[in-house]
Structure prediction request, 259 residues.
Amino acid sequence: MAETMTAAAPTRLDSLIANSPVASVVSNPRLQDNPIIACNQAFKDLTGYDDDEIIGRNCRFLAGAETEPWLSDTIRDGVRERRPVLVEILNYKKNGTPFRNALLVAPIFDTAGELEFFLGSQVEIPADAPGIRAGAHGDINLITLLLGAEEGGLQLLTRQGEWLSIAPPEGALVINVGDMLERLTNNQLPSTIHRVLNPPPERRHIPRYSMPFFLHLASDVLIETLPGCIDADHPNLYPSPITANDFLVQRLIEIGLKT
Ligand SMILES: Cc1cc2nc3c(=O)[nH]c(=O)nc-3n(C[C@H](O)[C@H](O)[C@H](O)COP(=O)(O)O)c2cc1C
Prediction:
């Protein structure tokens, strides 16, 4: 591993990164374009590049077509202002495979307080990392109207207990039944359990803006099973009415958001 370090690499940084399991590079900001002057085996394993393709180059070669330009700007600003920066940025391996890179770039100062090096640490976030953006939940309210769910990720739990991916067409309005409507209708309109997954690495930079409208009943409205939803086959599951506020509090306690 020692041969990975160039002669120019400083001894204390040699020992700092050489045996680290975390992919790491050291750059020299005193040289033109802040080139990498040392890297470790973990960096070569992660990226697939060899020493001669790494040493002497600015680390921007890991960026590519879909790399978030605003995150590259964040790193550039941090480098210019000599402060540490932590980003999760889309990078590419030598073979073109995209990966999410949890990247820390930090300045290192000499004993006189002069900027000497930058240390970069790259951690690959696996594509199958817990990619749940919003965990499984039902909405407590009456009805939710959702605009802008086109950028994938929304899943509904079916009666069979399987997650079903939903791809609403452009401009569609998603209407969801909430817990209050479920109770009002004696469970005939079940509150849908849903979750939102993170997109795959190559789409994670695309913003997923959606706009939910949560329709709640006024706090003092009594949630009383609708008579039309009660018959011999469907006895009233909720004989005691409850105010919308008490129901909200009860549900918040049940899901651990209130004590
Ligand atoms: C030590 C160090 C490590 C870096 N590692 C990465 C990296 O792993 N991935 C990346 O996209 N950019 C990385 N960068 C940022 C790029 O080198 C460059 O600063 C960034 O792309 C913004 O500059 P540019 O707009 O001139 O390309 C690193 C920078 C430094 C100083």
Residues 3-125 form a domain with the Beta-Lactamase fold (CATH 3.30.450.20). Residues 25, 27, 34, 58-60, 62-63, 72, 75-76, 79, 89, 91, 101, 103, 105, 118, 120, 122 surround flavin mononucleotide (CB under 6 Å). Confidence is low (pLDDT under 50) at residues 1-7.
